[in-house]
Amino acid sequence: MKDLAAEREELFRLDQAWARAAAARDVEGSLSFWAEDARVVPPGQPALVGKDAIRGYVSAALAMPGFSIQWRTADFVVSASGDMAYGFGTNTVTVDGPDGKPLAERGRALTVWRKDPGGTWRCVVDIWNAEPAAAAGRGL
């Protein structure tokens, strides 16, 4: 029987390491958490499929003046088989506005994770959207 609590703890550990890599603006470190066939679906944009497309997106984002991203995954749910999971949480993306002052957008995120053949968790789907204006002030 799988130790689902241990798998969940590992996902939280990996997600926090991923967030640190993103905060450090480490493109390759950030990419290491996605599977080779991952799909990333940014708000209002077509899906990006595979690491080459994701690398281009991440590199372009990091080149934007004032860009930063932080997130907090509130929970992970692990499948009974212990090889698939999903996490949901919140994020904040900041960029410099036209006047040079930081503009922050809070969002909601859903990630889907799968164990690779070596037993390492990798994100296979990463999708997020803006938090509704009414919820932004309540931390929902």
Tell me what the structure shows:
By secondary structure, the chain is of the alpha+beta class. The chain has a single domain, classed as Nuclear Transport Factor 2, Chain: A (Roll). Helices cover 30% and strands 41% of the residues. The protein has 4 helices and 6 strands. The protein has helices at residues 4-23, 27-31, 51-63, 133-136, and strands at residues 34-41, 48-49, 68-78, 84-96, 102-115, 121-130. It has a 6-stranded mixed sheet with strand order 2-1-6-5-4-3, with helices on one face. A hairpin with a 6-residue loop joins strand 1 (34-41) and strand 2. The mean pLDDT is 93.
| Major beta sheet summary | 6 strands, mixed
The CATH topology is what?
Nuclear Transport Factor 2, Chain: A
Query: Mind telling me the CATH class?
Result: Alpha Beta
Low-confidence stretches: none
The N- and C-terminal alpha carbons lie at a distance of 35 Å
Query: How do the strands of the widest beta sheet line up side by side?
Result: 2-1-6-5-4-3
Give the % helix: 25-40%
- What is the helix tally? 4
Helix and strand content put the structural class at alpha+beta
Q: Give the second-level CATH assignment, the architecture.
A: Roll
Along the chain, the helix and strand elements come as HHEEHEEEEH
The average pLDDT score comes to: 93
Radius of gyration: 15 Å
Instruction: Please report which band the strand proportion falls in: under 5%, 5-15%, 15-25%, 25-35%, 35-45% or over 45%.
Output: 35-45%
The total of beta strands comes to 6
In one word, what is the shape? globular
* Domain module count: 1
